[in-house]
Amino acid sequence: MKHNIGFILTKHLDSSTVAAANTESRTIIVNTNYKDKRQIPLQFAHEIGHIVNGDHSMRALYFTPSRYGIELKANITALNLLAPYYLEDKPDEYVDVDSFMEMFAVPEHLRDAAEQVLYSND
User: Fold this and answer.
1) How far is it, in rounded angstroms, from Cα 87 to Cα 76?
2) Mutual angle of helices 111-120 and 97-104, in 10-degree steps
3) CA-CA distance, 5 to 21, in Å (whole number)?
4) Alpha carbon of 13 to those of 16, 36, 39, 106: distances in Å?
5) Distance (Å, rounded) from C-alpha 60 to C-alpha 70?
6) CB 3.0 to 4.6 Å from 81: which of 40, 42, 45, 118, for a disulfide?
7) What phi and psi values does residue 10 have, to the nearest 5 degrees?
8) Which residues of 64-83 are buried (b: 16+ CB within 10 A; e: fewer)?
9) pLDDT computed for residue 122 by the predictor
10) 91: CB partners within 8 A, 6+ apart
11) pTM for this one?
């Protein structure tokens, strides 16, 4: 991979366990058993965001749909990573923030960030 990121996909975690990143080893663990399957890509992209944004932590960083600090930056990176998949072959008149948020189970408090990402990707 371009960014030297490793990942582990596992179905052996509790359905409430979110994805996590170890920024030192540049490894992401993704729980494919997560209760809302639509959100798995968002969690994975969020954790990629921590690594490509250069975040450092002595402990694992867990997916948090926060609107502050490094978590917000990771969320914005995640939205930017996911937007091309949503926008692919979609005419402009069908681009809709609600359907994007539904597709990836984006939390409502990230609506402004989702709108900015979607409508600036022209």
Assistant:
1) 16
2) 110
3) 10
4) 8, 14, 16, 22
5) 13
6) 45
7) -140, 145
8) bbbeeebbbbbbbbbbbbbb
9) 53
10) none
11) 0.91
Of 16, 19, 62, 13, the residue nearest 35 (C-alpha): 16
Helix extents (H) in 8-107: 40-52, 69-87, 97-104
pLDDT at 1 over 90: no
Helix (H), strand (E) at residue 112 = helix 111-120
pLDDT digits (tens, 9 = 90+) for 58-117: 777 777 767 778 999 999 999 999 999 999 999 999 999 999 999 999 999 999 999 999
> What is the arrangement of strands in the sheet containing 27-31, beginning at the earlier edge strand?
6-10, 27-31, 20-22, 61-62
- Quick one: pLDDT at residue 111? 97
CA distance readout (Å), 104 to 69, 83, 113: 22, 10, 14
Question: What does the longest C-alpha to C-alpha distance in the chain come to?
Answer: 45
